[in-house]
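Sequence in, structure out.
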Amino acid sequence: MLLVVVVVAAVVVAAVAVAAVVVIIVIAVVAAAVVAVVVVVVVVVVVEVVVVVIVAKVVMVVVVVVVAAAVSVVILLVVVVVAVVVVKLSAVLGT
């Protein structure tokens, strides 16, 4: 009878040990999954920020180029208008 109790106790202890190992493994897997999700979220956020910064800089460069081109066209038009006015005034004044 004592032998049966010892065997049952040993089986119970072994089962508890196996259960403890399984719980530890499950906790480790869950922790690894949480860490992986956090890493992926951080990488996605960093990539989004970098992409937004790059896009913003490209848009800024395009705006500067367009504004510079527009200013150049306006300056050219002013020069042409002034030249036409000077020519017309010269013709009118007979100089």
